[in-house]
Design goal:
alpha/beta, Rossmann fold, N-(1-d-carboxylethyl)-l-norvaline Dehydrogenase, domain 2, 2 domains, binds nicotinamide-adenine-dinucleotide
């Protein structure tokens, strides 16, 4: 098979490596000429400072990228997904299968990424849509370390197709799911709790606090799943608890790193300026906070993180506010 990968960053190139390993041909499209050159000339993933196979080529010619294959895998930050889709849409002339690996919810519309795809693309050229998500840091996948993720689509045949494309028996195991909503929400929401987990670590609050965050974070995710009409069983899967655990405990997580710096007293702008890679949790936090308000959901952790990030409330005060809430039943 041939696959076009839109976005030659850390996750785009890690997934390209898996596809190459599975004997598929890959063309990477990136708007950044320096990234394209590093892929073609040095055969490296610049963001991870890691080698990639020489057979993976890159271009910044969108027409070449769109015409290269009938499978377009999007791996760009969620804030540019719309504009990237607009760029692709004008060149579509045959139906394509769209796969998205970006994790987020659009703050202005509360749309999941699949909804953004259907909003921007000419429906005549959408052969199918599949979300790829799960506990997977590019740093480990690019080194072919054991990883399990999920391919989800409302159309089971499309999920199975993408499962087949990425699955191998060496290090990359892919499950299929038809709960597109749950899979997309899990991948997006966990980033908010990764920020919180980094804050907890930055404040030196310890492992008990982190375990409590993961558990009570899951409760807040459940409320949002229910409001969106997602299958809450997905919370028990790779894209639910799986991704939540890895992102709240791994130092590879950019969201965790950002939270850690804020917890250490660095302000948000300085933190974001110091990060070379995308911190998706901030936009998703804004989306979840406003969605919760609109749907009258009780989301104390998300609200606390929102006040720290957007209202510049001292993390110490946000923490105190969480503790001063009335006593409650656990379930
Ligand atoms: N890094 C990971 O381990 C990982 C794992 C799972 C999911 N994700 C998700 O994947 C998405 C991308 O993350 P990343 O870590 O690869 O980011 P990154 O910052 O490493 O790379 C993003 C790349 O997209 C390119 N880009 C920006 N706008 C573009 C456009 N319009 N068209 C084509 N390319 C464009 C940039 O030049 C950059 O090379 C995020 O939503 C992230 O949450 C990342």
């Amino acid at each position: 098979m041939k696959v076009t990968v839109i976005g030659g960053g850390s996750w785009g190139l890690a997934l390209s490596t898996v596809l190459h390993e599975n004997t598929h041909d890959v063309l990477v499209y990136d708007t950044n000429q320096a990234i394209v050159d590093k892929i073609n000339r040095l055969h490296i993933c610049y963001q991870l400072n890691a080698d990639i196979p020489k057979q993976i080529h890159a271009t910044n010619d969108i027409l070449e990228a769109v015409n290269y294959s009938d499978v377009l895998l999007f791996v760009v930050p969620t804030k540019v997904v719309r504009s990237a889709l607009q760029g692709v849409n004008t060149h579509l002339n045959t139906p394509k299968l769209f796969i998205n690996a970006a994790k987020g919810i659009e703050p202005e519309t509360f749309m999941r990424m699949s909804e953004v795809f259907y909003d921007e693309l000419n429906a005549d050229y959408i052969k199918g849509f599949v979300a790829l998500s799960g506990p997977s840091h590019a740093e480990e996948v690019i080194q072919k370390m054991t990883t399990l993720i999920t391919a989800a689509s409302r159309v089971e045949a499309d999920a199975l197709y993408v499962q087949h494309l990425f699955h191998n028996q060496d290090f990359f195991r892919v499950y299929s799911s038809t709960d597109l909503k749950g899979v997309e929400l899990g991948g997006a929401l966990k980033n908010i709790f990764a920020l919180a987990s980094g804050l907890i670590a930055g404040k030196g609050l310890g492992d008990n606090a982190r375990a409590a965050l993961i558990t009570r974070g899951l409760v807040e995710m459940r409320k949002i799943y229910e409001a969106y009409g997602a299958n809450i069983e997905s919370l028990l899967g790779l894209t639910g608890i799986g991704d939540l655990v890895v992102t709240c405990t791994s130092q590879h997580s950019r969201n965790y790193q950002a939270g850690y710096k804020i917890g250490h007293g660095k302000d948000l702008e300085a933190t974001l300026d110091s990060m070379t890679m995308v911190v998706e949790g901030i936009r998703t936090c804004e989306a979840a906070f406003n969605y919760g308000k609109q749907h009258k959901l009780d989301l104390p952790i998300i609200n606390a993180i929102y006040t720290v990030i957007f209202d510049k409330v001292d993390p110490e005060i946000a923490y105190q506010t969480l503790f001063e809430r009335r006593r409650k039943k656990e379930l």
